[in-house]
Amino acid sequence: MSLVRASIAIGRRACVRNALQSSLARTLVPAGSRALYQGPSSLHTNRGGISEKETIVKLLYNIGSRKEVEQYLRHFSSVESHQFALIKVGGAVLTDDLDTLASSLTFLYRVGLYPIVVHGAGPQLNGLLEKAGVEPEYHDGIRVTDAKTLEIARKVFQDENLKLVEALEKLGTRARPINGGVFTADYLDKEKYQFVGKITHVNKELVESSIRSGALPILTSLADTPSGQILNVNADVAAGELARVLEPLKVVYLNEKGGLFHGETKKKIDVINLDEEYEDLLKEPWVRYGTKLKIKEIHDLLMHLPRSSSVSIISAEHLHKELFTHSGAGTLIRRGHRITPQEDPTKLDADRLRTLLENNDPEIVEGKSSVARYLQSLKDRKVKIYHDSAYDIFAVVAVPEEEGAPFLEKFVATRTGVLNNVTDNVWQMIKKDFKKLAWVASKNDENKGWYFDRADGSHTINDRTLFWYGEEDLDAVQKYIKRFAEDSTNSSAATTSSNIAQASSAGVQHFSTASRTGVRYYSTTTSIQPRSGGMFAPHRLPANLGNTFQPIVAPVLRPAILSQRRFAVPNFRPKRMKFKKAFRGFFPIHEGGSLRATTVYHGDYGLQTMEGGRISDRELDQARTVIRRVLKPHKGSRFYLRAFPDRPVSTKGAETRMGKGKGAVEYFATWVAEGRILFECKGVRREVGYEAMRVAAHAIGLHTRFVERDEDNLVAPRVLPHFVREKVRKMEWNGFTRGEGVKGTFRAMPKPYPYTV
């Protein structure tokens, strides 16, 4: 039984209710939750005192984290009931997924949320028109509605409206059919379209009255003229006009496909940036009729809303996922930004570009160069320039006159450009225009991690790293690196000027929408060095592959040295302890490796220790804080802490005499062995997970490495007795199978564990 159907069955079947009562007794809703999710509906209460609403809220935790669900419920409850969500339902959904739609709407109703539903009936109308012998006629995606078509359309809308209302009522959800009185319209073009209306006024009182009475408003898109003539209005148009008046938190379009699909590739479109793709999209041969009108209406709607607003097109079964999780579903349509390539620097808006560079270009901010000097240098060279319409991003690629790869010499963006993913759009356009590209990062460049994720190869000399992509000829790569080695001796060699990492950390959000999973990264060094930057001159492109390439699957992350400040006491320690001080002065550390918690189990990426040692509460707290800072802007991300500081460490002054006690508890710590997983995360791209673990590694005073979920465990116990190793080999892996060890019990390792010690 699906999640939605399960929520309905809870209130109807006593046996299910009793079973859930016993299972939910262990995880009761916090005291404040009942007041938080109160709504105008009256819900049943079972014998255990747990309301049906609370039970359904618990079921929501199956589609997302508890924090996500409670956050969205609190967010949706903070506005008027009629401003929660506007859901436009396609006619095909009413035919094929009526039960799923009714269950999804009932699910929302049971937690006190009241979505406003506007539905169409296009497929049903086409079927009846075909039976009546009426040939559908369209102009510019708008159905021409004559008297016969209007008569059939009115009956179809009423029937479909009542069908949805009855389906909701059968599930115990109060719903009110509203077939008219909300939209007032005039003729759009009576000679061309006949009885097709253009909405001039929206009466929201009928909608608000329905919600005040505790019923979901179910609207058709039929409108009336001031004289009482019924006019046909496209449901997408009606939903857009209603959204402009009500300004709901969510605008959701439901269709049977679960999104928009490309007419030629037949693949679902994940994101549409209207500023960049709108005009070209309308010219596509597969964009016609209702699809064209839908895109036009969404475009007009978003033009009247903030640039951060968006519209989602999803299926009925994923409605709850769209509303209560960060990841969402279906096709996301937003305004985005238009990217303009230029080859003539004189066509740039000098004033807006000056503002961008003076505030964001590291070289210009530090006074190493000036805007006027740089713009003058562009006129004397062959370059290709990329910028958006708002001048939130500026990139320059130097094109070589002779052989060699093009060179990325500047990539600067504002915080707004990073948050709106403009940087990734520009990068994709650069990759489309240049099949090969090279750039260099210096030692202190904040963008080096971003560069590693987008490069096919790299080579580090001194404090400068050469990156490239698209070059498959090793001889050519060797020439690049040879020239790069010559340039590395020149302190004035050009460096790629970029602020992408600073802008992304300032906005606490990363921007790449393309997953790099499965791409092999190569480097001539065995570990990723601290962030570096530096680049050879733009006229002389990369060179020389002196060393043998080695794949970097799990680079070692070197820790930073932390200052032990006694006054920096984190609130990250046990709430209560039986003994506040440890009886022994030292705890044993198993240097041979850990037998448990050595693989990424809960998430997709993790941070693993490369040596045993003690980690203080201060270090764990700092690492936890920076990981959350990196993951916070990414919807759907989750963070897991696998180590907790539960051991007290006490100290006493140098002049304290023997027998005067252990001294006060200085801090709490945890003792870990080699191979222990400290942190895990999931729900983000690999580069984001790596960045989160990278910054956390600098807070931990041990050598660590980045690991992935299905990766072989490279850290094996080295000093275990032979019979223990044999015991581990024979144990079967099924989740966490427990087996008897030398001292008590221990948890068996998964099969990928390298048992050859």
What features would you describe in this structure?
The protein contains 26 helices and 34 strands. By secondary structure, the chain is α+β, with helices and mostly antiparallel strands. It has 5 domains: 1-62, no CATH class; 82-334, Acetylglutamate kinase-like (Carbamate kinase); 339-552, Aminopeptidase; 554-712, Ribosomal protein L16/L10 (Aldehyde Oxidoreductase, domain 3); 720-757, no CATH class. The strands form 9 sheets. An 8-stranded mixed sheet has the order 5-8-2-1-11-13-14-12, with helices on both faces. Residues 337-492 form the N-acetyltransferase domain.
Main sheet, how many strands, which sense, barrel?
8 strands, mixed
Strand content: 15-25%
Side-by-side strand order of the widest sheet: 5-8-2-1-11-13-14-12
Please name the fourth-level CATH homologous superfamily of the largest domain. Answer: Acetylglutamate kinase-like
